[in-house]
Design brief:
The complex is a heterodimer.
Chain A: H1 2-10, H2 18-28, H3 40-74, H4 87-101, H5 108-131, H6 135-159, H7 161-171, H8 181-199, H9 201-207, H10 211-216, H11 221-243, H12 249-261, H13 265-289, H14 298-316
Helix pairs in contact in A: 1-3, 1-13, 3-8, 3-11, 3-12, 3-13, 4-5, 4-6, 4-11, 5-6, 5-11, 8-11, 9-13, 12-13, 12-14, 13-14
Chain B: E1 2-11, E2 14-24, E3 29-33, H1 40-48, E4 54-58, E5 70-73, H2 85-90, H3 105-117, H4 133-146, E6 151-155, H5 163-180, E7 183-187, H6 191-197, E8 200-205, E9 208-213, H7 215-218, H8 221-228, E10 232-237, E11 240-245
Parallel strand pairs in B: 3-7, 3-8, 5-6, 6-7
Antiparallel strand pairs in B: 1-2, 1-4, 8-9, 10-11
Amino acid sequence: MVAAAGAGLLVGPADIDVWSVLLAIGDALPFIEIDHGLTEVEHTVLFEIRFPRVVLGGLVGAILAVAGAAYQGVFRNSLADPYLLGVAAGAGLGATLAFARSGDSGFIAPLAFAGGLVAVAVTYGLGRSVGGRTTTSLILAGVAVAAFATAIQTYLLQRNVETLREVYSWILGRLVTVGWGEVMTLLPYAVVASAVLLGTRRLLDVLGIGDEEASALGLNVSRVRWIVVIAATLATAAAVSVSGLIGFVGIIVPHTVRIFFGWSYRVIVPLSLLFGAAFLMFADVAARTIVSPAELPIGVVTAFFGAPFFVLVLRTMRGPG
Amino acid sequence: MIVWESVEVTYGSTRVLGPVSLEVQSGEWLGLIGPNGSGKSTMLKAALGLVEHGGRVSLGNGDRRPGLDIAWMPQRPRMPEEMGMDDYVMLGRTPHIGYLSSEGKHDHDTVQLALKKLNLEELANRPLGTLSGGESQRAVLARALAQEAHILLLDEPTASLDVGHAIDVLEVVDELRKLEGLTVVTAVHDLTLAGRFADRLVLLADGLIQADGPPHSVLTEENLTSHYGSGIRVVHDEDGPNVIPTRRSND
């Protein structure tokens, strides 16, 4: 994660060397004054552009990864992820609605949250009514919900051509920021959701033995499920509303952690936070460098790595759950 | 003690249980017997509040608290393959651990004790997926014991055990019952084994109690043939009734 953050700070169109960055960071700490030798412009680039962008990438990555881990635990489904469950598409629809109906960015997060929550509820309900709680029916329901939400979103875009460009760049996922505004918007959601998900991670292991047995152990299964889903959805929606649709983080990261560190959500949840942050910071570096000085949308980068990985997970999965 | 008062369970328009009323005293071992689909598992699940039911289940001194008062060993437990045995048994401590806290020393000690009682100490770190049928079944029982509940509901606790291990496991349960005054209700298919361990048998068929009493009065050829079909002989010896299957064509 440190390496990823370092790379994020150092790479960019403006050429700033390692030593100066370190000195400048030292200088920024309270009570320390160091001559970092950066020009005014370089200093601004570092602290007002690169730094917030790296932090934002880390936050979004951490949120998406931990939300993925939480959905996988709570639905006992290794393919659950904010995107496959339709949460992101629902949140995207909500956010598009906010873009289209009013220019006010204050509506984006709440509408995205509402959209995400409705989407996950519909997906879960559909998945259960169609075929019990099998892996396939849940994911297929998620695909249907996502397609439906996307269809409405496209319709809205057609009707509101003036916002098309803005929404389109946002759909592809972006970490472009101006100063610390987005970071500050996202931070409270990230902190609250992470705290809830870290607090309930032991209960995700209890859910692993099934609803019936978990209830027999005195667990209020539906309450736990709703708390976790709401926290994960709130965080996802917040992430989607600032960074757009960045796919596959929620599935790649928890699975990699699971492969290396075992089955328990007590381990998977905290490590997904860390590795999710690192993964997205690296992905952002890749997005910025591959076609430098232009930028790839970061969603394109994560999908490029994520889609093959997803296939791998499908192949190695041993039965449902 | 545990009391079922006019408990009935219906799925849609089909009544699968009851109404049944039954009182099991503290320290008593009650064996539930009956053919497949007679409502044994449903009766246990109703006691835990896992199925919607009419009537009332109480513990004599107040309402049930699933998990704390009642430990349940399901017939077909869901056992995540990669989970370690000790972590699995630790799940039995769930009712004692707050939602947001984690387990303490007493919880670890209780788990170790449960593993020891069932001779599972050496398998403590094994993933559940690598256990034999008998080992898995003992792991589930260990999890139930780790709950430290005073009522044990065991649904087919010996289904995948050979006769030697079946006796071992039931002896462990009996020892705990005598030592700690546990109330034990088991649903068992092996009628002879049920009669050996239970103080009292209840024969369920079609969701209703057909016979209730000490093993020798319930395990009669008349009772068994009328609910299980023909071809069952009962031979009494000094240990009690022995239920012997015979060929129906010999009737």
